[in-house]
Each structure stands twice: as structure tokens, then as C-alpha cells.
TrEMBL record:
Signal peptide: none annotated. Keywords: Membrane, Plastid, Protein transport, Transmembrane, Transmembrane helix, Transport. One of its GO terms (biological process) is protein transport. It is a multi-pass membrane protein. It comes from Legenere valdiviana. One of its GO terms (cellular component) is plastid membrane. This is Protein TIC 214. The lineage of its organism: Eukaryota, Viridiplantae, Streptophyta, Embryophyta, Tracheophyta. It holds the Pfam family Ycf1. InterPro entries: TIC214. It is found in: Plastid membrane. Part of the Tic complex. The gene is ORF355. Belongs to the TIC214 family.
Length: 355
């Protein structure tokens, strides 16, 4: 009776845990889906309105300046117009960077024509110049590239990351593990986006989300961004893992990155994407590897014990056999020897047995 009561109590506890986890997961999924759909719809509507206003010359006076009815056009202090360097200067700069790369220089100081200098790798600066030249050759304004990057940022924040979090926690529930909704949502909230100029410098009030996208795009954009473009920086990017592990993995976390218009993140604008680190699969691989090693060690140990037992049994059985001594006759066939010598060389076989 005691065993039956224990069994039924354990069964009820197990079923209650499953029901609570399922209800938590269902409510969490519903909450995330509602928030994502509402924010994505309103954000796309705002961005479409802003882009149409900018393209058709709507209420905006100058990119980066907001329209107010109490301001007269003569009172506006328009910023100084930026000029792109000539093709000859860009060609000379590209040639200089190639020479630095050939000499094996790791870093160089690069002037951004706005009073700012940055120490970067020559290869990164070369990537940026060649990418800009490609867009200039195609006669496309770099603002289109910036809008594509912004669309990638919003789709990452409000579509792909929530779907990945939902899939991960549902998989944990199906594997009878505790879901990690709170930890993943805090990581998702800590990931923020910043509007930067074409060289990757953050703007002062450039923190952007889908709620303040209209305000940022109308009031706080880089100067002449439609011609020179802009970048989007991600601070504390989310890197999903199967479970939250100790601090040794948190040390490897990236503090910032830039979004590419194609796919992935990069450490500097116009550079190639980061190589995949497979942080989601590394802990799973380590656990599986440890279990396989323990299983192999256990099997090999059992087989070696069985082999030692067989060797001991054979040794004990052969100890009781009679001891045999043999004398081997060696005959040397040499035609130069006489028959007498041959008879001397002969040895007779005399077997003897001892018990």
C-alpha cells in the first residue's frame, strides 16, 4: 500500500508540473505573439509614412531637422553641406591602404572628414571604401542601404528572436525541462539598437526602437543620410543557448556589433559577417561528448574485467597439465663430412614425461 501511495503521489506531482509548465508556456507565447504583431504592424506603418514623406518632400525641411509651425525658414540654421571626396583621392587612399596591408600593418589612423579619427585595421577601411564605390557606381544613394539595415534590425528584434525564444522553450518543455522564459526575455530586452553615422559613430540620442522610430527618423538622423547612408549598431546582442550556463561563457559575449544589410553581424561597417560560433550547440555537444566518454569507459572496463577473468581461468586450467620435455635431433647434411662425423653430430630424441 505504501508503494502504491508513493506512486500515485509522484504521478500527481508529475502531472501538475506538466500542466503548470504548459499553461506558463501558452500564456507566454500568446503574450509575445500579441506584442510582436502589434509593434511590428505599427512600426511598419510609421516607417512607411516616414519614407514616403522623405521621398516626396513632405513635412521635412532637412534630414535631421524637425518641422515646427512656429519656425520660419530664415531662422533655421542648416548644417554645413558635406562633400564626398573625389574619385582621385579615393583611389589614392585605396592604394595607400593596399600598401599598408602588404606591409603587414595591423592598425592605421583613418580620418573621417568630420574632425574624428579612429584607429582601425587597413583591411576594414578598404572594405568600406570599395563598398561605397560600388554603390556610387550603381548610382544608388546609400540611404537605401541604411533603410534596409533598419528593416533587418526590426525584423531581428521583433520577429526572428521571439520565434527563436519560443521554439527553444517549447523544446525544453517537450524534453521535460524547466522553461527559461524570464531569462530569455530579459536578454531580449537588453538588446538595444543605435543609429550611427556612415562611419559607425553613435548619435547622441540615437537609441531606436519600434516605438520611437518615427521621432528618430524625423529629428535625429545623420546629416545628409540619404546620400551618405547610416549604420545601426547592436549593443548586447542576444546569443541563444540551450540553457543559461556559468559565467565562463558570458565572458565570450559580444558587447556590440553592426547589422549587415544581407545577413548576420559584423564588428565594423561594410566588413564581412562574424564566423558562426555555434554557441547554441556547444553546451549540447559537450554534454553528449561527456556521456559518450563515460559510456565507452564503462563498456571498456567491463570488457577488460571479463578478459582478465578468462585469462585467470585459462591459467588455472593449464597449471594442472603434465610437464613435457623434448629433445630435438639435429642432423647437419653436409656432403663434405664423413659418415663418422655425421654419426657424431646426430642427437637422438628421447622424450620424457613428468607428472
Amino acid at each position: 500500500m505504501n508503494n502504491l501511495t508513493r506512486f500515485f503521489t509522484n504521478l500527481t506531482r508529475f502531472l501538475t508540473n506538466i500542466c503548470t509548465n504548459l499553461t506558463k508556456s501558452v500564456f507566454g507565447v500568446m503574450k509575445i505573439c500579441i506584442v510582436v504583431t502589434c509593434k511590428s504592424v505599427f512600426g511598419v506603418m510609421k516607417i512607411c509614412i516616414v519614407v514616403t514623406c522623405l521621398y516626396y518632400g513632405g513635412p521635412l525641411i532637412q534630414p535631421g531637422l524637425a518641422w515646427r509651425p512656429d519656425i520660419v525658414l530664415g531662422d533655421l540654421k542648416l548644417p554645413q553641406i558635406k562633400r564626398r571626396s573625389s574619385s582621385e583621392k579615393r583611389y589614392a587612399l585605396r592604394k595607400e591602404l593596399i600598401e599598408l596591408i602588404k606591409r603587414g600593418e595591423d592598425h592605421c589612423a583613418y580620418d573621417y572628414q568630420n574632425g574624428l579619427w579612429r584607429i582601425i585595421r587597413p583591411l576594414d577601411a578598404l572594405y568600406q571604401i570599395t563598398g561605397e564605390d560600388c554603390w556610387i557606381f550603381l548610382r544608388c544613394p546609400l540611404g537605401i542601404r541604411g533603410l534596409i539595415i533598419l528593416q533587418k534590425a526590426f525584423s531581428r528584434k521583433y520577429i526572428w528572436l521571439p520565434l527563436a525564444i519560443i521554439g527553444k522553450n517549447i523544446a525544453r518543455i517537450l524534453l521535460f525541462q524547466q522553461p527559461e522564459w524570464a531569462e530569455d526575455i530579459t536578454d531580449w530586452k537588453n538588446e538595444t539598437y543605435w543609429i550611427c553615422d556612415e562611419y559607425g559613430f553613435r548619435l547622441r540620442y540615437g537609441k531606436i526602437s519600434i516605438t520611437n522610430a518615427l521621432e528618430i527618423l524625423t529629428t535625429n538622423m545623420p546629416q545628409q543620410w540619404w546620400e551618405f547612408g547610416f549604420e545601426v549598431e547592436v549593443s548586447m546582442p542576444v546569443e541563444l543557448r540551450p540553457w543559461h550556463i556559468p559565467d565562463e561563457y558570458k565572458r565570450r559575449r559580444r558587447l556590440g556589433a553592426y547589422i549587415k544589410p544581407t545577413w548576420g553581424l559584423t564588428h565594423y561597417p561594410w566588413c564581412p559577417s562574424f564566423p558562426p560560433r555555434y554557441l547554441f550547440w556547444i553546451p549540447i555537444y559537450e554534454v553528449i561528448q561527456e556521456k559518450i566518454q563515460t559510456l565507452v569507459y564503462k563498456v571498456v572496463k567491463e570488457k577488460m574485467q571479463r578478459l582478465e577473468q578468462i585469462v585467470k581461468e585459462l591459467h588455472n586450467n593449464f597449471r594442472h597439465l603434465p610437464e613435457i620435455k623434448l629433445k630435438i635431433e639435429l642432423v647437419v647434411n653436409n656432403p663434405n663430412l664423413d659418415e663418422k662425423d655425421k654419426n657424431k653430430k646426430k642427437q637422438q630424441i628421447k622424450p620424457s614425461f613428468k607428472k
